[in-house]
Specification:
Low-confidence stretches: 1-7, 9-18
Strand order of the largest sheet: 3-5-4
Mean pLDDT: 92
Distance between the termini: 32 Å
Number of helices: 29
CATH class of one domain: Mainly Alpha
Number of strands: 5
Helix content: 55-70%
């Protein structure tokens, strides 16, 4: 019988060589059965016609609509978002399964281009909405309760009012969006096509990054140096992508009058810049207490004078080399979810049985992991690159948390379900925390507990310290790009300028590490996204502490928060728990959770 103990801790268990088992793949039929399906063709035709009809019916007319007519307008707009979202989700998910497949790349590009063309006639909606006086909308809301539900959406749109350009320029920027998409696809295709030579093996990015967590230090070193070699070989391409993307953003921000490169992200996240700055400052100030202190401990455990970059995510010497089979990972996470509330387990189960997860590492598949919500009348899909390591189990718990959140929020409808990034990580990190404590409670001895605590601390440092360091790198990159073209060496220098500060004096940095910025997808796909991870981790630490202190009634409030989606501001969602993200003590409380774990590690040591 495979118990939780021998899944996780028994170094010499007969299960240590257990294969991963059959890993699930996506079944995309809930979106469309194939690229030539009649339903897909019908949706494209409907979308083209409905976008034109919507513009004919409402352009120049918003100011004259009654409350019920305005609601009908919003619902038609929401249906357009649903159909276009279904199309782009299907094309995008197929593409991420194999980014090197020319047919999938073309199909995605064609769908993106058609949606861009069709939806260009809808640009007037936000522009006209922002020209309505506040008084006009305030008078409509009391007349129709269902319309008033959309006030949070309108408030977010109207927050962009000071930065709105002319109708003609807004349409131009909309149509030019396909150019930015092309640079993102170039990044994806380049990353997916990289080949890393290790002995006689040819590895993709996911597998070379996995090598950096190998028990054998020489193999980690080989992996790090090969990663550096290949990134250096392609660094001009990555520098060109970053230069172009950053310059495009600078031009758009300048024309809009945005006060900083980060400001548009703060607007879309519905979070105040001063809250993000308080988070950033609290984390940077904690570097010595957190990452510097932990990595010095790790250096001692490994018996080294200093750590090389290939030691950052290295397993501890006493850590098991065992791979965790997919079936065991599934049971572990579902049991953790069930221990919190049976509702959470029931929401998670269909992901495993209905083809909602794509888990295997495959040639051409996009690296990393994500949970894509698709549209509110279908369901989310989760992508993993599962290799059987304990961290992969935590990634499963993380992405499954996203999936549960997305299912619960779907009842808000297309326009209100989308959660700002600062809150989007709430359920995912909470799912990780539940799984971690499930594993910690099963630890059979202090050494096993030490391994789990160390792994959790490393994950939290990666989520908080590393992501804020990423955020600082992006801030420096976008500021520097304002003054001119950046050479690869310029970008390398910006990267290195924040590495020693964040990681601490325990590290030495090999030649070539300066290029490691090049493989981080968030910098290209979602500039300044990364602080949301730190925001979510700090928020969840505070939430979990509240759960431990006051478990009665917590799950009900927690599900209410997830079901709210994007219908409430973060302050309103946290208020039932007595938490306030604008209070600097909030972030200090979250960071103290990490510090207390390091304290325990020092005592075990």
């Amino acid at each position: 019988m495979v118990t939780l103990r021998n899944i996780l801790f028994d170094k010499d268990s007969s299960e240590s060589s257990k294969y991963l088992g059959t890993l699930p793949e996506w079944d995309l039929n809930d979106l469309y059965t194939n690229t030539q399906s009649l339903e897909l063709e019908a949706d494209l035709n409907w979308l083209e016609k409905e976008c034109k009809l919507f513009a004919a019916d409402y352009q120049g007319q918003l100011v004259d609509l009654s409350a019920s007519e305005f609601l009908n307008c919003v619902k038609r707009n929401e249906k357009i978002s649903n159909v276009s979202g279904r199309l782009i989700s299907y094309a995008g998910l197929r593409y991420y399964q194999c980014t090197t497949d020319g047919e999938r790349t073309k199909f995605l590009s064609d769908i993106q281009e058609k949606i861009t063309i069709y939806s260009s006639s809808l640009i007037f909606f936000n522009l006209e909405l922002n020209r309505l006086p506040d008084k006009h909308l305030d008078e409509l809301y009391p007349q129709n309760e269902e319309l008033s539900r959309y006030k949070p959406v309108f408030d977010r749109i109207r927050a962009l009012q000071p930065y709105q350009l002319s109708d003609e320029l807004e349409k131009f920027l909309h149509d030019m969006g396909v150019v930015g998409d092309a640079w993102e696809k170039l990044f994806d295709e380049t990353i997916a096509g990289l080949e890393f030579e290790v002995g006689e093996e040819i590895l993709n990015l996911e597998r070379i990054l996995n090598l950096l967590t190998d028990h054998d230090r020489s193999r980690r070193e080989t992996g790090a140096k090969e990663l550096a070699r290949v990134l250096s070989k392609n660094i001009k391409t990555f520098a060109r992508i970053h230069n172009t993307q950053a310059k495009e953003k600078e031009i758009i921000d300048r024309w809009r009058g945005m006060p900083s490169p980060q400001f548009s992200r703060h607007l879309s996240n519905h979070v105040e810049p001063e809250v993000v700055e308080a988070l950033r400052n609290a984390v940077v100030a904690s570097y010595p207490e957190l990452s510097h202190r932990y990595y010095d401990l790790k250096r001692k455990w490994m018996g080294l004078d200093y750590l090389e970059i290939w030691d950052r995510n290295a397993p501890l010497p006493m850590e098991s080399t065992q791979k965790i089979a997919w079936s065991d990972a599934k049971k572990l996470v579902l049991d953790a979810y069930s221990g919190f509330d049976s509702k959470m387990e029931e929401l998670a189960k269909p992901f495993f049985s209905k083809g909602w997860i794509d888990a295997a590492v495959k040639p051409g598949k996009a690296p990393g992991a994500f949970a894509h919500p698709t549209v509110t009348n279908v369901h989310p899909y989760i992508m993993l690159n599962y290799l059987g390591k304990p961290r992969d189990v935590m990634t499963l718990a993380h992405e499954l948390g996203h999936g549960v959140h997305q299912i619960l929020a779907a009842k808000q409808g297309e326009m209100l379900s989308s959660t700002p990034l600062t809150l989007a990580e709430t359920a995912s990190v909470f799912g990780e925390m539940l799984t971690f404590h499930k594993m910690l409670n099963a630890a059979p001895d202090p050494q096993a507990r030490k391994v789990l605590l160390a792994n959790k601390v490393e994950d939290m440092i990666n989520t908080v310290v590393r992501q804020i360091a990423f955020y600082d790198f992006e801030c420096k990159l976008h500021d520097a790009r304002k003054t001119g073209e950046l050479t690869p060496d310029d970008i390398n220098a910006l990267w290195m300028s924040i590495q020693a500060e964040s990681l601490g004096p325990a590290f030495k940095f090999m030649a070539g590490y300066e290029t490691f910025w090049a493989y981080i997808p968030h910098f290209v796909h979602s500039p300044f996204y990364v602080y949301a991870y730190a925001f979510g981790d700090g928020l969840v630490n505070a939430l979990y502490a509240e759960y431990q202190d006051h478990p009665s009634g917590f799950s009900s409030k927690y599900f209410d928060m997830l079901e709210a989606g994007g219908s409430k501001h973060h302050s309103d969602l946290l208020a039932p728990f007595g938490l306030d993200a604008s209070d600097p003590k909030f972030w200090a409380k979250g960071l103290s959770v990490i510090s207390s774990m390091i304290n325990e590690l020092e005592s075990i040591n």
